[in-house]
Structure to design on (413 residues):
């Protein structure tokens, strides 16, 4: 039976069914009208909330956020502490092994999940204004240039060179590619192992990589040509790759175990020559958190894991590049150490959330702020000196979530 026949048979013969069908059709028309109105409402709200066309709403790079900057006085030390971020977001600084400030010293680059995913932002040291720098899938490994207001960073398997100056100057949202250049993709079969670092020549990018379960290595990438070359192969997990800040072609890296390594610190030339232990561990020390300290030293901590080790040399130590001699600078239960670029000052943090300033000549340690790891805290301060050595940036959980704090070392009292 055809549809036409159904109509002819059904409608005239059953008034009840006919009325029912008409009511159903009226109900469906009403439903469709409501759905159309809802769709229109959602579109209207999305356009109003963004203030722009939907096609532009994905451009988050260059987005400017108001200053959150405020300050307080540390009740124990009397030091004025500047809080650069105070939002409930997880605001994290770049690790103390790497530059945190832009080359002109005017901005600090940090990572925050304030937009829903972890992205890089720049906060103005002077005004506190925050600008979004990336809108990528899991960006990481930022290396902020010491000589130009740019940074290299990694997203997925791609290494990017981002122009921070252009992002800060832009007054309208644009696609992220407007402000960045692709340097290269990681070679097939290699995954990053630890951080990337940039030679003092500004163009050679060094990185630890893992090839399979038992093999690692260091690679160099020419940022101009996008070509990789091998530095060394390694049979242990490499990490914390750090190019020397002023001697081109010199790299410090570590044997990464996530805990106490048999021989933590290693050093190699960028052409693969003279690969070997840097500070050679002589007893059962827990050496960790090494960073370059001025032109001719590297500073690190020796963690006193138990009472026995507390009787042995521990705390913040350094090794001279020339004669490889060990010096204990300040004996205390420090965990991380930050180093002033001129090699004259160090800043050590403790598990209790204290930060000490240590004179590089005398070893005298002074508590300059505390209270940054309340009970349940998950982040460590990781102190970093500004390029001019005048202030120290650190991460704090004083306000119940991760924030960036800054303290000037010379304060008028
Ligand atoms: Ca925060």
């Amino acid at each position: 039976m055809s549809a036409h026949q159904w109509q002819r048979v059904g409608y005239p013969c059953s008034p009840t069914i006919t009325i029912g069908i008409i009511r159903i059709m009226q109900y469906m028309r009403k439903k469709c009208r409501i759905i159309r109105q809802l769709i229109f409402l959602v579109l209207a709200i999305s356009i109003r909330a963004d203030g722009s066309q939907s096609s532009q709403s994905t451009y988050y790079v260059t987005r400017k956020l108001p200053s959150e900057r405020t300050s307080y006085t540390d009740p124990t030390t009397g030091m004025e502490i500047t809080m650069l971020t105070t939002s409930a977001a997880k605001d994290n600084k770049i690790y103390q092994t790497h530059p945190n400030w832009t080359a002109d010293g005017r901005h600090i680059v940090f990572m925050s999940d304030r937009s829903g995913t972890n992205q890089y932002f720049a906060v103005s040291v002077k005004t506190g204004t925050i600008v979004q720098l990336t809108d990528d899938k899991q960006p990481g490994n930022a290396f902020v240039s010491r000589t130009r207001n740019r940074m290299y960073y990694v997203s997925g398997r791609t290494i990017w060179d981002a122009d921070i100056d252009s992002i800060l100057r832009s007054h309208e949202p644009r696609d992220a590619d407007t402000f960045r250049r692709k340097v290269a993709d990681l070679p097939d079969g290699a995954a990053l192992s630890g951080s990337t670092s940039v030679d003092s020549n500004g163009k050679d990018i060094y990185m630890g990589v893992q090839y399979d379960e038992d093999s690692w290595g260091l690679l160099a990438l020419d940022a101009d040509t996008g070509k990789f070359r091998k530095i060394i192969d390694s049979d242990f997990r490499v990490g914390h790759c750090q190019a020397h800040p002023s001697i081109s072609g010199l790299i410090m890296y570590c044997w990464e175990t996530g805990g106490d390594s048999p021989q933590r610190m290693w050093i190699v030339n960028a052409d693969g020559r003279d690969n070997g232990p840097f500070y050679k561990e002589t007893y059962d020390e827990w050496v960790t958190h090494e960073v370059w300290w001025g032109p001719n030293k590297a500073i690190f901590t020796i963690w006193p894991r138990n009472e026995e080790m507390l009787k042995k040399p521990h705390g913040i130590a350094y090794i001279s590049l020339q004669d490889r001699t060990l010096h204990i600078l300040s004996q205390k239960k420090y965990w991380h150490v930050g180093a002033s670029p001129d090699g004259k000052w160090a800043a050590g943090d403790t598990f209790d959330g204290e930060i000490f300033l240590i004179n590089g000549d005398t070893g005298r340690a002074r508590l300059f702020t505390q209270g940054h790891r309340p009970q349940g805290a998950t982040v460590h301060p990781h102190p970093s000196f500004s390029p001019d050595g005048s202030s120290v940036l650190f991460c704090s959980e004083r306000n119940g979530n991760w924030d960036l704090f800054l303290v000037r070392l010379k304060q008028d009292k």
Summary: The first strand starts at residue 64 and ends at 65. Helices lie at 3-13, 15-50, 164-169, 307-310. Residues 85, 87-89, 91, 401-403 surround calcium ion (CB under 6 Å). Residues 157 and 186 are 5 Å apart (CA to CA).
